[in-house]
Specification:
Largest sheet: 5 strands, parallel
Order of helices and strands: HHHEHEHEHHEHEHHEEEHEHHHHH
CATH topology of the largest domain: Rossmann fold
CATH architecture of the largest domain: 3-Layer(aba) Sandwich
Strand order of the largest sheet: 2-5-8-1-9
Number of strands: 9
Oligomer: single chain
Radius of gyration: 26 Å
Structural class: alpha/beta
Helix content: 40-55%
Number of helices: 16
CATH superfamily of the largest domain: P-loop containing nucleotide triphosphate hydrolases
Distance between the termini: 39 Å
Shape: globular
Strand content: 5-15%
């Protein structure tokens, strides 16, 4: 039976091409490619949000932040579910979430708005030339210039959340990527939840509803945050433990196992055992996380791997090991 007529999607979407290149059937391979359906929880936080299983301690921290209006600072290893906690809150209440992904060049202003100064300068120069070219032409009035300048002002996560007609979540993701000044520059906004309009400092931007959005800040602990910033936050660190990982795996699998359709409960349990054995290897520079375990389980399901195969091989020979171990030195330690 041709591969594209199989009732199931084979794992080997790419194979060695045939020796005579003319024998390669690209059309059939493209039909297979079109049948791909990655699990919704991979790369789609909103779809996975209601399958997220926060620990009791995380629920406590979330409720503390909601009742006090304080930002919630979530720390932990990459891939432990910090970002997904914000999507969970958004899905739980069915309220919008506004995300700000921090970069090394981010400033506090970027959380509130961005002004396209280059674009505005180009407009101003073009308008000046047009006015000069017109006989008796007048340049744009001050009122018109202000209106045009507004068009180069782009509202970002915090401002967008303030304008929401209801509650909202603001995610400040991976704050430890930014310069040390970034969290210090947010102290007033996170404390008072207001900031001056960029074109009129007599006008202050604040939540329309009078209620603060829930601000969730994540950090991978790459560096310590300033004490003044920490003082304003509710803090919680997401620690990986066996109960948390099991809950995450079984929730994503679903009651009917459809999340990993070709992995039964025994295979999922065996995969979790091998996952913990990998994490216990001394000296690993990059230990696999929950997110990587879920990705690995998806691949094992596509490969139709059983518990006996997982339990019967060395750690270095685990199938699809590249989904868990991401460092060449760590691979060398295994082998």
């Amino acid at each position: 039976m041709p591969a594209d007529d199989l009732p199931f999607l084979p794992f080997e979407l790419i194979e060695q091409p045939p020796a005579p290149p003319a024998a390669h059937d690209a059309t059939a391979r493209r039909r297979l490619l079109a049948r791909r359906r990655p699990p919704p929880f991979l790369g789609n936080h909103p779809q996975a949000a209601m399958r997220y299983r926060p620990s009791d301690d995380l629920l406590l921290a979330l409720n503390m932040a909601l009742h006090t209006g304080s930002p919630l600072l979530l720390t932990g290893e990459p891939g432990t579910g910090k970002t997904q906690a914000a999507d969970f809150v958004s899905a739980y209440f069915v309220i919008p979430i506004f995300k700000f992904l921090v970069k090394s060049t981010s400033t506090a202003q970027d959380l509130m708005y961005e002004f396209d100064a280059v674009g505005y300068l180009h407009w101003a120069q073009s308008e000046r030339r047009s006015a000069d070219a017109r006989l008796g032409g007048a340049r744009a009035s001050t009122k018109e210039a202000v209106a045009v300048r507004q068009g180069f002002l782009h509202k970002r996560a915090l401002w967008q959340a303030y304008e929401t007609d209801g509650d909202a979540v603001v995610l400040i993701d991976e704050i430890d990527k930014a310069s040390r000044d970034f969290p210090n520059d947010l102290l007033h906004e996170l404390d008072q939840h207001s900031f001056p309009h960029p074109f009129d400092h007599r006008r202050w931007i604040a939540p329309h509803t009078g209620r603060r959005p829930l601000v969730i800040v994540t950090s991978n602990d790459e560096r310590r945050l300033p004490d003044a910033f920490l003082r304003r936050c509710i803090f919680h660190r997401i620690e990986l433990d066996e109960d948390l990982v099991k809950a995450a795996v079984e929730s994503m699998a679903g009651a009917d196992g459809s999340g990993f359709p070709h992995l039964d409960a025994d295979a999922r349990a065996a995969a979790r055992r091998r996952f913990w054995q990998l994490r216990e290897i001394p000296g690993l520079d990059k230990k696999p996380s929950t997110a990587e375990l879920l990705t690995w389980l998806s691949i094992l399901s596509a490969q139709r791997v059983d518990a006996q195969t997982l339990d019967g091989c060395r750690l270095a020979d685990l199938p699809a090991l590249g989904a868990l171990i991401k460092d060449a030195g760590d691979l060398a330690r295994l082998r």
